[in-house]
Amino acid sequence: MTAKIISGTVVAAEIRAEVAEKTKKLLAQKRITPGLAVVLVGEDPASVSYVTGKAKACQEVGVHEETIRLPADTPESQVLALVEKLNRDSKFHGILVQLPLPKQINESKVVNAIIPQKDVDGFHPVNVGKLLMGEPFFMPCTPHGVQQMLVRSGYDPSGKHVVVCGRSNIVGKPVAAILMQKQPGANATVTICHTGTKNLPHYTRQADILIAAMGRPNAITAEMVKDGVVVIDVGVNRVEDKTKKSGFRLVGDVDFEAVKEKAAAITPVPGGVGPMTITMLLVNTVRAAEIAAGITV
Ligand code: NAP
Asked: Is domain 141-275 in CATH 3.40.50.720, yes or no?
């Protein structure tokens, strides 16, 4: 069996077209342009590249985006004051503080300072709690993107055994929380694995749907999956590649070439989950604007 390739680029384009349509409608009917404020502290190259990607994506779907750049040595109090100001600014429906932050700034304090109604990253404890309780408001972007990829590609998780490798607060835990809910597009039996899991292959081999979010290149091998598994590879890892100008290439957590021979479907890296993350940020931002406009969704 050679797997169907689930392209995040294709699914993301479909969702972005829907977002652009909603943005047009908001402007025509309510004279509202959804607004996103992005706060970037320092010049970490990966963060700069993510922020640039977010700005471009916003522009493409008609979301007003402003990136506020602060020097790396900005004190915590100044970042908190900026967040407070953005909380009150009605032209921004969403606020995103790019993580990681320099070490003098407490990330939790900053995330907690964003009002839940503008927390389009879905990281505020109120939004995390709501998700767990089955009353999601803003869902975190990468896990929500994983769910959308599954559902829109015809792999409804309902009744399936989903095995998640990784338990981080940004991917593993929320993806498990989303897929275990008694909701359409979820309702799965979920197992979460981590470094404390003894005999990881014992669990991964039981997966109907395997979600790898470990940050370990090629950690999931063909021997660790059953025939017909659906694999979502969240991992993004740099491995040395002297044939590339940059000196590296990106790979996921899954041995793609070997696993695709056994899987029913699999996401590539790059071009898999990556494009979905920014797309779900756009979804959340437009939804925030719709809620602010009194359109209940
Ligand atoms: P993280 O915070 O480092 O968490 C990694 C998780 O994997 C931890 O829970 C860890 O277990 C577990 N783990 C690590 N090695 C393992 C092993 N050998 N066996 C079983 N479990 C193992 O990483 P993250 O932020 O969740 O990100 C995971 C990956 O996804 C990274 O490659 C990241 O770059 C990528 N990512 C991609 C996107 C995207 O948009 N495509 C977004 C976010 C993240 P412990 O808890 O026991 O340490």
From this structure: yes
Among 214, 226, 114, residue whose Cα is nearest residue 160: 226
CATH code for the structural domain at 31-115: 3.40.50.10860
Q: Is the distance from CB of 101 to CB of 269 less than 8 angstroms?
A: no
Report the atom number in ligand 1 closest to the C-alpha of 274: 41
Take atom 4 of ligand 1 and give the residue whose Cα is closest. Answer: 168
Identity of residue 116: P
Q: CB of 244 within 8 A of CB of 251?
A: no
CA–CA dist 235, 219 (Å, integer) = 10
* pLDDT tops 90 at residue 296: no
Q: How distant is the alpha carbon of residue 84 from its chain centre?
A: 25
**In the chain, what are the domain boundaries?**
31-115, 141-275
Taking the centre of ligand 1 as the mean of its atom positions, its distance from the CA of residue 213, in whole angstroms, is 4
**What separation in angstroms does the CA of 212 have from each of 196, 233, 276?**
16, 5, 15
Reported as a single tens digit per residue, the pLDDT across 51-62 is 999 999 999 999
Task: Verify whether residue 121 is a known catalytic residue.
Answer: yes
Note whether 225 and 204 are within 8 A (CB): yes
- Please state the pTM of the whole predicted model: 0.97
Sequence-separated (6 or more) residues with CB below 8 Å from residue 100 = 44, 47, 107
| Residue 148 identity (one-letter amino acid) | Q
Three-state SS for 271? coil
Mean pLDDT along residues 190-199: 98
* Residue 201 Cα distances to 190, 207, 208, 210, 220, angstroms: 16, 10, 13, 11, 9
Q: Is 70 exposed, middle or buried, given 0-12, 13-18 or 19+ CB atoms closer than 10 A?
A: middle
